């Protein structure tokens, strides 16, 4: 018997408010950390918003959401992952009352999703901490952010009660170890932070995540809450046990996050890491109690894998999705240097499933590539993105194999179903979409939408529940 995608498998796409909405200061929205990062991870934040920051306009989804969701519906989406911009609801983050206009926007967006029967999957914090919390409080280093975040979580969970069932707390929660400003609102270079400061911020996020999970279950027992992990399989560069152990050691730095979200306590290897590095955290009894509120499912992003070597001089270090590593000589890389590894997705799925025995959800996967707009297609202009189709096909074949291996998987949301502003480089030219958006890196363009070749390809994958995938 051939095992394939289960009935009811959720198919769709994923975005983040700061990468698509634009309207950065409309209807009472406050600034978020992304509004002062015109060059992404490459350069330090600016004082205030600058005209060269593509994030400020995004792809104008704030005004075009109905058109965009209609296109998602045409592809057959049954789920859509988006984030609620925290600074739209609480402009400064520490406000006591929410901004009604911000709440109303997501009501309108949910109306559109309901029209097409698309299940919302909502990220509460997707690299868009209110700027005021970063600048006046020091970001997640400050314990007060737990209260501000849980107020935000409770507000939106109550407001959208019965309309949103699937919630994610922090996007790529482990990324704070690598990029403290983007992931933790901590405006200091990683090298200037002590390990204790960094892990105290991690701890605050973990407690906040657990409390948001508790609130979600109190507001509606039908709510399902997931953590969200940046998944990067790590291979030893050679079969030498020291390289294998180095790969395991690096992997454990990330496993910590899933282990705490699923098991409700710090694992032994993390406690040892704290001892070895002189890390002394403030962890209260109330914190330990809070961590007991564990997640219902585990979600993750997957783009690439890396290799690790015990000898720091071995191999060349490569770039990647926040987490870098040693270049794996057996793999090819994307134009942005991310090593493409479909089998790594099967490995991660099996690994996470065996480790946590919680339903999994792939909430990001895709290829950032340069596209060329040509004549043709249903809209007069299109992109022949066979490279994107190949990338997604090969990854989904491995997902199917993992399901046959027995992995419990709820769904798959491709990253950036519509071209959006890239997170790491703040470019439009790094495109992920099934839908092309006419906007260039210099900000020019009409913002018109065009279906790419992959649009129809993904529509067929969904319509056949994966049956049209090619081995
Ligand atoms: C993930 C982020 C996303 C997204 C993606 C692709 O780490 O969660 O926000 O942007 O990476 O990265 P980029 O946009 O830099 O290509």
Would you kindly provide a written description of the structure presented here, covering whatever features stand out?
This protein is an alpha/beta fold and 471 residues long. The protein has 14 helices and 16 strands. It has helices spanning 17-20, 61-75, 86-89, 100-115, 131-137, 144-159, 180-184, 195-219, 241-263, 268-276, 285-290, 342-356, 386-404, 453-463, and strands at 10-14, 79-83, 119-125, 166-170, 224-231, 234-236, 297-302, 306-308, 317-318, 325-326, 360-364, 374-375, 381-382, 409-415, 435-437, 449-451. The strands form 5 sheets. Strands 1-2-3-4-5-7-11-14 form an 8-stranded parallel β-barrel, surrounded by 4 helices. The chain has a two-stranded parallel sheet with strand order 6-8. Helix 2 runs parallel beside helix 4, helix 6 runs parallel beside helix 8 and helix 12 (342-356) packs parallel to helix 13. The mean pLDDT is 97. The structure holds 6-O-phosphono-beta-D-galactopyranose. 6-O-phosphono-beta-D-galactopyranose is lined by residues 16, 171-172, 230, 301, 321-322, 364, 368, 415, 422-425, 430.
Provide the domain count.
1
User: What value does the average pLDDT take?
Assistant: 97
Unreliable spans? none
Strand order of the largest sheet: 1-2-3-4-5-7-11-14
Strand percent estimate:
5-15%
Number of helices: 14
Instruction: Give the CATH superfamily.
Output: Glycosidases
What proportion of the residues is helical, as a percent range?
25-40%
What is the CATH top level name?
Alpha Beta
Instruction: Choose one word for the global shape.
Output: globular
CATH architecture annotation: Alpha-Beta Barrel
- Main sheet summary: 8 strands, parallel, barrel
CATH topology name: TIM Barrel
Whole-Å distance between the termini? 17 Å
Number of strands: 16
């Amino acid at each position: 018997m051939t095992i394939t995608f289960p009935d009811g498998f959720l198919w769709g796409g994923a975005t983040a408010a700061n990468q698509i909405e634009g309207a950065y200061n409309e209807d009472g929205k406050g600034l978020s950390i992304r509004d002062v990062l015109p060059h992404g991870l490459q350069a330090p934040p600016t004082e205030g918003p600058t005209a060269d920051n593509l994030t400020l306009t995004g792809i104008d989804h704030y005004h075009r959401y109905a058109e965009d969701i209609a296109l998602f519906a045409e592809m057959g989406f049954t789920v859509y992952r988006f984030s609620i911009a925290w600074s739209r609801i609480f402009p400064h983050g520490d406000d006591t009352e929410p901004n009604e206009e911000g709440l109303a926007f997501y009501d309108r967006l949910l109306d559109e999703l309901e029209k097409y029967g698309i299940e919302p999957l909502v990220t509460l914090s997707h690299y868009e901490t209110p700027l005021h919390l970063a600048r006046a409080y020091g970001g997640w280093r400050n314990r007060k952010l737990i209260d501000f975040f849980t107020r935000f979580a409770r507000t939106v969970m109550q407001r959208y009660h019965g309309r949103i069932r699937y919630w994610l707390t922090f996007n790529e929660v482990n990324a704070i170890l690598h990029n403290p400003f983007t992931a933790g609102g901590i405006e200091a270079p990683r090298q200037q932070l002590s390990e204790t400061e960094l892990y105290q911020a991690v701890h605050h996020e973990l407690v906040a995540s657990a409390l948001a999970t508790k609130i979600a279950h109190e507001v509606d027992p039908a709510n399902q809450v997931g953590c969200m992990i940046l998944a990067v399989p790590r291979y030893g560069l050679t079969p030498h046990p020291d390289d294998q152990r180095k790969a395991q050691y690096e992997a454990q730095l990330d496993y910590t996050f899933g282990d705490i979200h699923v098991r409700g306590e710090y694992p032994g290897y993390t406690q040892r890491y704290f001892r070895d590095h002189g890390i002394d955290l403030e962890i209260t009894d109330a914190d330990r109690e809070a961590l007991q509120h564990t997640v219902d499912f585990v979600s993750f992003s997957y783009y690439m894998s890396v290799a690790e070597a015990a000898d720091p001089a071995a191999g060349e270090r490569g770039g990647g999705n926040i987490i870098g590593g040693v270049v794996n000589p057996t793999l090819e890389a994307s134009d942005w240097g991310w090593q493409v590894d479909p089998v790594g997705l099967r490995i991660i799925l099996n690994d996470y499933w065996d480790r946590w025995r919680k339903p999994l959800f792939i909430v990001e996967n895709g290829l950032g590539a340069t596209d060329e707009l040509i004549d043709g297609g249903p809209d007069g202009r299109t992109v022949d993105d066979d490279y994107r189709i190949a990338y997604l096909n090969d990854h989904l074949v491995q997902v199917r194999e993992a399901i046959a291996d027995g992995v419990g998987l709820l769904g798959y949301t491709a990253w950036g179903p519509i071209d959006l502003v890239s997170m790491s480089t703040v470019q439009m030219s790094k495109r992920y979409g099934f839908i092309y958006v006419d906007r260039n890196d210099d900000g020019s363009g009409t913002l018109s939408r065009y279906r790419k070749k992959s649009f129809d390809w993904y529509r067929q994958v969904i319509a056949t529940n994966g049956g049209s995938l090619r081995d």
